[in-house]
Fold this protein.
Amino acid sequence: MNAPTNISAQTQNRKADHIRICLEEDVQSHQITNGLERYRFTHSCLPEVNHNDIDISTTFLGKHLGAPLLISSMTGGTEQAAMINQRLAQVAQHYKIAMGVGSQRVAVEKPQVADTFAVRKYAPDVLLFANLGAVQLNYKYGLDECLRVVDILEADALILHINPLQECIQPKGDTNFRGLLDKISDLCNKMPVPVIAKEVGNGISAAIANKLIAAGVAAIDVAGAGGTSWAKVESERAENPLQRRLGMTFADWGLPTAECITTIRAIAKDVPLIASGGLRHGLDVAAAIALGADIAGLAMPFLQAAATSETAVAELAEVLIAEITTVLFCTGNATLYQLKHSGSLQRIE
């Protein structure tokens, strides 16, 4: 009878560890980058655009966004996480940008912490993403649990995060990934909201994206390598030398974000595509969109700001919007559509 309580306590402690480690330790990739540094925008000294006319709004999964930005899935389940999510949601509402929350498994196991995820009251008009680990479909989770986390958030879509490397290194990780594609397909057929497939920082290849799209996922979040390394995060939580060694060995494992975007877009012209993984400013966002992404997600910059204050989150959003707008202005594009089709982003040979 005590097992579920013990499991939920472990999950809650893990979430607290993740926030602390990401904020206090060096868990960024160093040998691998997001790949965007291999591209450069062609500067237009005569843009023939009025800066005041530039429009960076867009739509994603049928919902209007004021900017092509996603506050990527991060946290929930603890008192600190509740504060972070509230600050993020209030800023998301103000700027009309999308937001995801961290894995809601803890809210399934421990319903009394569900309110730490329930941000709809702060963000009534925002595109909100619920979140569960895809591997949990092999650990007695199914349609009911997925519906529950969507209901907690009053979410517009469900993210299924796919994280085999993290589970390999994480103490007591869930590593049975056998047969998941069929279960994802079955879930996609039954869910009343779109399902998004997302990695957690090691990237999704074109071949796997093709399988996920065929299975029925509505969108892909590439979550490529080059930013926070969850192998390094889990190595900081290691319970033995083997786990620590694994985390450090695979600290720079994965597919760069830029490579994920271009290869997936080459085989899937129309799938809604989120670029995340190592994006740190609006120039990265604009480059990702010029490569073919529809919106771009950032996690670490928003986490650092939200741990400080709501004002810091708002200031970050303002800067990102200004940076994206500046790219459009200095490439002579008035809209994101024009930017995508302008050819102004060139690969540096």
User: Anything to note?
Assistant: Residues 3-24 form the longest helix (22 residues). The first strand starts at residue 39 and ends at 41. The radius of gyration is 19 Å. The chain is about 45% helix and 15% strand.
